[in-house]
Amino acid sequence: MANFELSDIPLLSRSTLDRAEHLRSDAQALTQGWSDAALLRVTRGGQVRVVDKQLVLDEALDLGTEPTADAVFLGVDSGRHVWAVYTKELVGELADLRMVGAILDDTSAGILTTAVALLNWHNKARFSSIDGSPTKPANAGWSRVSESSGHEEFPRSDPAVICLVHDGADRVLLARQTVWPSTMFSILAGFVEAGESLETCVVREIREEVGLDVTDVRYLGSQPWPFPRSLMIGFTAIGDPDQPLAFSDGEIAEAHWFTRAEVREALAAGDWTSSAGVRLLLPGSISIARGIVTAWAASD
C-alpha cells in the first residue's frame, strides 16, 4: 500500500497545556499568578522527579515572592500558572523525558517537553549571536535580550526530517547508525539545511546516507524533540529495492529492506530497550519513528 497515515498523534505532540502566550509580557498577571503557581525543577541532564507516573511539581513560592529571572513560564493548567527552572540536583525517583514521556498524561507531557526545550535553549543562548555580549531572559523566559544593544532573540527549533522509505508494496528500508548496537535499526533522518525545503531535504539526506533515490515524498506529521531543540518532521517516500545502497557519509553502518512481516515481529518484540537475541529492534514509542513504522506495518 503506497499511502498510509499516522494512526496516533506522536506522543510528544499531544500536549493540552494552555501556553498562554498573552501572559508572557504581562508582569502584573505573572506576579499575581505566582502566588499559587506550580514549579517544575529540571536538572541539567533533563531529569525530573516522578511519583506514581506523575510529575512532581513544587510551589513556585519556594523560589521567592515573585518570578525569578531564571524561571521560564510554561503556561496555564486548570487556571494555575506553571513554571520551570534548572536545579543542580534533585532527590527522589528521577526520570527524563525519554523514560516517562510515553506514560505521562497529555498535559504533563507538554509541560515536560516544553520545559526541557526552553531550558536547553537558555543554556546555549547566554551570549548574543549579533555581537557576543551577554544576554538576559525576558518575556517570562521566552526571549533573551542583549545587555549591550537590546537585540532580542527567541527560542530556536532546528528542523529535521525523518522519513520512512518503502517500495510501495511490502518492504521498508531500515538503517543502523555506526554507533548503534548491531540489532538497532530505524528510519532515516537528517537536519534541514539553509535555503532548503523539507521535501528537498528528504531526497538529499536519503541519497547522502544510503545512496538511494526516492520519489513520492509525502508529509505525515511532526513532533518536538528537545534533545536539545529539534523538531522532527515525518515523511514517507518510495524507493527501489533493486537500486544498490551506498554509505558514503560515514553515518550509516548498514541498511536493509525488511518485509512487513519482519517489521511486525520486531514491533511485537518490544523496542531498543528489549533483550538481545533478535535480529531487529525498533525505536521506542516516544519517538515519531516508532509511530511511522507502526502505521506502515498496519497499512495493508
From TrEMBL:
Q: Does the keyword Transferase apply?
A: no
The segment(s) forming the Nudix hydrolase domain are: 155-280
SUPFAM superfamilies recorded: Nudix
Supply the InterPro entries for this chain: NAD-cap_RNA_hydrolase_NudC (IPR050241), NADH_PPase-like_N (IPR015375), NudC-like_C (IPR049734), NUDIX_hydrolase-like_dom_sf (IPR015797), NUDIX_hydrolase_CS (IPR020084), NUDIX_hydrolase_dom (IPR000086)
Q: Which cofactor does it need?
A: Zn(2+); Mg(2+)
- What EC identifiers does the entry list? 3.6.1.22
Sample GO molecular function, one term? metal ion binding
Q: Which reaction does it catalyse?
A: a 5'-end NAD(+)-phospho-ribonucleoside in mRNA + H2O = a 5'-end phospho-adenosine-phospho-ribonucleoside in mRNA + beta-nicotinamide D-ribonucleotide + 2 H(+)
One matching Pfam family: NUDIX-like
The top EC class, named as a word, is hydrolase
Annotated Gene3D superfamilies: 3.90.79.20, Nucleoside Triphosphate Pyrophosphohydrolase
Q: Where is this region: Disordered?
A: 132-153
What is any one of the record's Gene Ontology cellular component terms? cytosol
- Name the keywords, alphabetized: Hydrolase, Magnesium, Manganese, Metal-binding, NAD
Q: Biological process GO terms, please?
A: NAD+ catabolic process; NADP+ catabolic process
Family, according to the entry, reads as follows: Belongs to the Nudix hydrolase family. NudC subfamily.
User: NCBIfam families, from UniProt?
Assistant: PRK00241.1
Supply the PANTHER family for this chain: NAD-CAPPED RNA HYDROLASE NUDT12, NUDIX HYDROLASE, NUDC SUBFAMILY
Return the protein name: NAD(+) diphosphatase
User: Lineage in the entry?
Assistant: Bacteria, Bacillati, Actinomycetota, Actinomycetes, Mycobacteriales
